[in-house]
Design goal:
heterodimer; B: mainly alpha; Helix Hairpins; 3 helices; about 75% helix
Chain lengths: ~475, ~100
């Protein structure tokens, strides 16, 4: 072993260096120039995102605790792009609200450490690394959710998130201890060889699954979602709904398709029931929401239910469709949250009724919102349709016709409430509409990238072929 | 290894501890008590890891090392939760669950 083998941790090392540079910059930049840390952080993270696309070897480190392959590498790049867009969208909010309180740099440091935790989580080769990554990705987000210390709702969101997260990780640990008892190791590679489906293993698996379901906000564990999204700053809500959820789905997929494959007859039924419950409850609760953040929270619960349709297959097709859908979902949801954030920053309005007549005053923002919602609902020309279509294909290829039928029913329900927002923006009259405003350059860039993503990802078919090729590792 | 005590008895104890924690999390009305319940859950799994390591797989120290990490992370988690609770207390002057309800439905 030589030092060059550490290069397979390039993503992690680079991100850690960036965080440390920001920490030092925080000390040396004088107080009246603190807004330059925002530019610095975005610039450094942009470089990190670009460098991430360099090719990487497949190998493992630390006796198998940390491993990486091309699909994991690709997914880290997707997460990078998502966080980069998120930083662009939240730059204005930071400069106007947070930097003036002299707390701008901590935001980036916490956010980057959380992303670092996600890297370690999806590259984990044993349950210890997985647990540390999970905690490192959750704890900073809880601090960030309580970041607006002067707002009561923000503190409430923080406490709700940290308490639920701690419970979930505790339950998940209890499950891991049972898996350790029956298999005699915490390394994934050792467990694969000896795991059999006996009662204690199944109980351990279910407790472990409960912990991850919390991160993905699947149905019995979804109660924190709406409250936290509503109370937290919007950029953190969108971080929770796309990046954190995406990474948790990815590691759950890896574990189900490799380590826990011998338990497939158990988790097939489990996911079948949970997928149905998640889709129906997410969609039905979204119908009656007035606050846009709550509305997007329930819509993201419903989307998690759709993702489970790809997980239920356990095949290469399932892997490829899940990764593809998560990627599209990141772009669509970031676009929707970006528009909500732009409007909330300028006017402080977050309710659906406030969006009445938005098209007459802000046509571009309404069009972006329309594209994002169409993509979330799955209307053909935009990317979301292809993502959902492939997921349904994957589930149908294993013969789950009833599940696919009920999922299509759910798409119809979701179309109804997405169209409620579009109706408010385009058809409703409003005596006191949101006035016309121009976004600053960062926000505009962030929204443009998401629109390009929504329009191009679905139509550029070689991308799906590329993901399908990479997915040969998990089948 | 404790002579005279089998692994079943200790695992029963940790299971009871775990479910006391879950019950406390669901029924307590005070945020600090909820935090204590979470500590019970985490400690139940710590004991589980150590006991399983000691009784079943004594030649490799995986479970013991795991438990050290759990203790460290639990401390971080608790301190973060306490700091958020303090911040909340400054604003509403209470640490009761029923007072953290501005967002509902």
């Amino acid at each position: 072993m030589n030092f060059s083998s550490f290069l397979i941790m390039r993503h992690e090392i680079l991100l850690l260096v960036i965080t440390l540079v920001l920490l030092v910059a925080e000390i040396f930049i004088p107080n009246n120039k603190k807004s330059s840390t925002v530019h610095l952080a975005i610039f450094l993270f942009g470089i990190h995102t670009a460098l991430g696309f360099m090719a990487l070897d497949e190998s493992s480190l630390f006796g198998g605790m940390f491993h990486t392959n091309n699909l994991i590498h690709f997914f880290k790049n997707v997460l990078n792009i998502g966080v980069f867009i998120l930083l662009l969208q939240s730059a204005d909010w930071l400069q106007e609200k947070i930097v003036t309180q002299n707390r701008g740099t901590e935001f980036f440091i916490l956010l980057f450490f959380s992303l670092l935790g996600m890297y370690f989580m999806i590259s984990a080769g044993d349950f210890l690394m997985f647990y540390l990554g999970l905690e490192l990705s959750t704890l900073p987000v809880a601090a960030l959710a309580a970041y607006e210390i002067l707002k009561r709702s923000s503190s409430e969101a923080g406490i709700k998130l940290i308490l639920s997260a701690a419970l979930a990780s505790g339950v998940s640990l209890f499950g891991i201890s049972m898996l350790y008892a029956t298999n005699g190791s915490i390394y994934f590679n050792d467990i694969i060889e000896v795991i059999t489906s006996n009662n204690l293993t199944i109980l351990g698996f279910i407790l472990f699954f409960a912990g991850l379901s919390f991160k993905i906000s699947l149905v019995p564990f979804h109660f924190w979602t709406a409250d936290v999204y509503q109370g937290a700053p919007i950029s953190i809500a969108s971080y929770l709904s796309v990046i954190s959820k995406g990474a948790a789905v990815f590691i759950l997929m890896i574990l189900l398709f490799t380590v826990l494959k011998p338990l497939m007859h158990v988790w097939e039924n489990l996911i079948y029931v949970i997928a149905l419950a998640t889709m129906f409850i997410g969609n039905l609760f979204a119908l009656r929401q007035q606050n846009m953040k709550r509305f997007l929270a329930y819509s993201s619960i419903a989307q998690a239910g759709f993702i489970l349709l790809g997980l239920i297959t356990g095949t290469q097709l399932g892997t490829a469709t899940v990764v593809y859908f998560v990627m599209i979902y990141i772009f669509s949801n970031l676009a929707a949250f970006g528009v909500v954030q732009a409007i909330s920053l300028k006017t402080g309005k977050e309710n659906m009724d406030d969006y009445n007549g938005l098209y007459r005053t802000n046509p571009k923002l309404s069009l972006i919102m329309m594209l994002a919602l169409f993509s979330l609902a799955g209307i053909p020309p935009v990317a979301g349709f292809f993502g959902k279509f492939f997921l349904f294909t994957a589930a149908a290829s294993k013969g789950y016709y009833l599940l696919v039928f009920l999922a299509v029913v759910n798409v119809t329900i979701s179309l109804y409430y997405y169209l409620l927002v579009i109706r408010a923006m385009f058809l409703r009259q409003n005596d006191n509409p949101i006035p016309f405003f121009k976004n600053k350059i960062y926000m505009r860039l962030g929204l443009i990238i998401t629109v390009i993503g929504i329009l191009v990802l679905g139509l550029y078919s070689p991308l799906y072929g590329y993901i399908y090729e990479l997915s040969t590792v998990y089948k | 290894m404790i002579p005279g005590i089998s692994i079943t008895e200790i695992l029963t104890l940790t299971s009871i501890l775990f479910f006391i924690g879950v019950y406390g999390f669901l029924t307590r009305k005070n945020l600090i008590s909820i935090l204590i319940s979470i500590e019970l859950i985490l400690n139940a799994s710590v004991i589980n890891f150590v006991v399983i390591n000691k009784y079943l797989y004594p030649d490799v120290l995986q479970g013991v090392v795991y438990s050290i990490f759990i203790i460290a992370v639990a401390a971080a988690e608790t301190s973060l939760a306490i700091s958020i609770i303090i911040n909340l207390y400054r604003q509403i002057g209470s640490v009761e669950v029923k007072d953290t309800e501005t967002m509902k439905y």
